[in-house]
Design goal:
The protein is α/β, with parallel strands linked by helices. About 40% of the residues lie in helices and about 15% in strands. It has ten helices and eight strands. α1 links the parallel β1 and β2. The longest helix is centred in the first third of the chain and has 21 residues. It binds manganese (II) ion.
Length: about 290
């Protein structure tokens, strides 16, 4: 498996800025050992004209083109964010490619949050809380336009691992959807190995592609302090390690993005160490 690293330093989708420094920090912390030194930068200009949603939509189009082109070239896109709004671009491009191949896309959304808000349900207005809604066909028209020509993701193919902080309007939307919610009590009851096996079996049966959208805040707040929205009682390093090892060993086609690491916050080194350990587990057989 040949990797295409892509730096996506967008951070205006979050309430706290600072994720824009994460791609360089993660690259230097060890990801430079992957992708044969070949890395694409998606330039981010926070002073570009327009509202935040316009700047994010424009960035997402360029990012989507990069993940699409990587797959066309037979490479696996590994995107270094950035806040979680970059998933609109990352996954938009991957979905476009799989649609052209008539193959199913599955998404493992590792996160404390569902990121399933619309402009009507969001308490904060922050776009990093909206990418799952946009990718499944709901939300602001400016953001939805990034998905032009791309079918909305199937909600039953989205698996949320580590979910534990859901906004009220989002909760209602989740109940009405068939997104698979692996909240923490389920993770502890079933065990992450059984859950991961279930997902891998479904991807294999469909001959599908699995995208891992890895929000670092899916891990427990004490383990990864340098994130904008930390939440207690989260996943352990061992749980995410088991999940990533099983995906790597399964042989399924996968891609990944890592988001929400904020190196300007306290505990930046500890958080980078945890993130890098897990990325190495996922990518250790790739070049
Ligand atoms: Mn998130």
């Amino acid at each position: 498996m040949y990797l295409q690293l892509i730096k996506a330093p967008l951070d205006i989708g979050a309430g706290i800025q600072g994720c824009k420094g994460a791609p360089d920090r993660l690259y230097e912390a060890g990801l430079q050992g992957f992708g044969q030194g070949n890395v694409i930068d998606i330039p981010f200009d926070p002073t570009a004209p327009g509202e935040k949603k316009d700047i994010i939509a424009s960035f997402s189009r360029r990012l989507a083109e990069a993940t699409y082109q990587a797959l066309v070239d037979g490479k696996t896109p590994i995107v270094l964010g950035g806040d979680h709004s970059i998933a609109i671009g990352t996954i938009g491009g991957i979905a476009r490619y799989l649609q052209s191949q008539k193959r199913d896309l599955f998404v493992l959304w590792v996160d404390a949050h569902a990121d399933f808000n619309t402009p009507e349900t969001t308490p904060s207005g922050n776009i990093h809380g909206m990418p799952v809604a946009v990718l499944t066909g709901d939300g602001d028209p400016t953001l939805l336009a990034v998905m032009k020509g791309i079918l909305p993701l199937k909600k039953k193919n989205i698996y949320m691992l580590g979910l534990r902080d859901v906004d009220p309007g989002e909760e209602e939307r989740l109940q009405e959807s068939d997104i698979v919610e692996w909240r923490m009590p389920i993770v502890r009851k079933e065990g992450v190995a059984a859950l991961t096996k279930h997902l891998i079996d479904r991807v294999k049966a469909a001959d599908g592609h699995l995208h891992i959208s890895f929000d670092v805040d899916g891990l427990d707040a004490k383990l990864v302090p340098a994130v904008g929205t930390p939440v207690d009682n989260g996943l352990t390093v061992e749980e995410v390690d088991t999940c990533f090892r099983m995906i790597r060993e399964s042989g399924v086609d996968f891609s990944c993005e890592i988001v929400e690491y904020n190196p300007t916050l306290a505990g930046a080194q500890q958080t980078a160490d945890v993130a890098m350990h897990l990325m190495r587990q996922l990518l250790s057989e790739a070049t």
